[in-house]
Amino acid sequence: MSGSAAPPEPPSGSAGPVVPAFPEPDRGFSLVWLVPIVALLIGGWLVFRFLTQEGPMVTLIFSTADGITAGQTQIRHKAVALGLVKSVTLTHDMTHVIVRARMRRSAEPALTTHARFWVVRPRFTPGNISGLNTILAGSFIELDPGMTRGKPSTDFTGLETPPPIRSDEPGRTFILLADRLGAINIGSGIFYRDLQVGEVLGYKVGKPGHPVTIFAFIRAPYDTTVHEGSFFWNVSGLSINTGAGGLQVQIQSLQTVLAGGIAFTTPYEALRTPLAPDHAEFTLFQDRAAATSSHYTERVHFLVHVKSSVRGLAVGSPVTLYGIQVGVVSSVALYINPDTNRVEVEVQIELEPGRLPNMGPIPSPQKVVDGVSHFVNHGLRAQMRTANFLTGQMELALDFFPNAEPASVTVENGEHVLPSVPTDLEDIQRNLSDVSRRLARIPFDQMASHLDQVIVSLDGAISGPALKQSVTDLAASLRQLRQLTTSLAQNAEPALKKLPAIANGLQADISQTGALLAGMNAGPAANSAIARDLSRTLDQAAAALRSVRALADYLHNHPAALLRGRATGASP
Q1: What does the pLDDT read at residue 505?
Q2: Global pTM?
Q3: 275-293 burial, b if ≥16 CB within 10 A, otherwise e?
């Protein structure tokens, strides 16, 4: 073959066979060894990864396997995969589902007794819509580590509903005690000044006679607004109040109408109280009015006796002074008055000293009694009044009645009794009753009988001949009087016309006589007795003439005065 090396020739003079010479093999690294080496490295890497990343196998118990698929459903925390479901089987009694999942080693610190697991799927509740992202991507199991100080565990019971609050969310949990749960449920919102700042984590119904315990979580920083003097009230649904203030409709939000809710506030005076610690207990009131009233912790009991109907008055009805609430009605019951043996109504009230004037921040009960006694001595009385004409609700009003009968605060079976007065309607009814009794005492029948007799007698007298003759005689007398008056007027007219001339003549004579007397006065006989008598006579004559002239003028203007006399007030 061309290109091949020719074998060497044997040396000359040698004897024996000739052995061909082969080249020694190459002792270098062969590429064939790369395949097992790479396979070994991959196997080692897988073993290392398994030992370093694969965590323990956990067992989850669910009531249903809805949305869980072996080999596909992941276990996540904050969208990070921490494990994968390996198998889904039923329990022996076939009431629950056992889900086994392989966890990563990084999830081991979260696998404690405080860890919680639940299936994230689309959920539609009255107050919330969640899990919409799983419609396309599929369901998965969410892990909430909880508190890290729990004991390690690999067996868990899954939650059927997601918890409202994650364990890593800052805030505090408070305990609310209520008589009834109402529309509050897990996930119901907690509001502060109409802003949702927390949620209801759960509730526990106590034994009969014990309150319902509600666990409320408030997020930071709003948890620092809760003081020991704060109060909570229920704002679930639509609140319609037809109390003394009229018709009131209250709604917190559409969410509270659908899913319920709780509101809280801290009064200004409660800001001085310490911050409420974690898991502090508060009373959950039915509405804000009840919560506000609870701020007045000091209450003094009084008793009021009512002698009329108390329809519309119930436990919790307001006790007012000048329209301002100063207490509440605590009891309404019947009792028998030992003095009159009549059934009356006994109304127990609780006055709140913090609402009364000049009582101080924390007055003693005796100071309140003394203050109320002072007001009673100045006319303070209790009276039933209508608070709402639409609903007929009543209230017990305290008011001053200056004309009320003297009374004082008495003690009956250890209770202080306030004097009362009838209602305005009762006064009107009493006055109408008095008028009715007085009218009943009037003998209307006898008066009607006598009136009938008078009418009959008068009718007989009018229709009798005597009255007719009297009327005829009176008419004749009036005609004669008219004729006499006319005759006198005609006869007196000429004499009246001559009276002014006579008066003028007399006046002239008097003037001449006056001149004569003046001459006599100038003579020696001026101071004689004759002169003086004559002067007086002339004065009297002048007065008589003036009277005659006045009479003539009057008769000229009033001829009928000769018969009727001078009219009253006419000038002479």
Answers
A1: 74
A2: 0.52
A3: ebeeebebebbebbbebeb
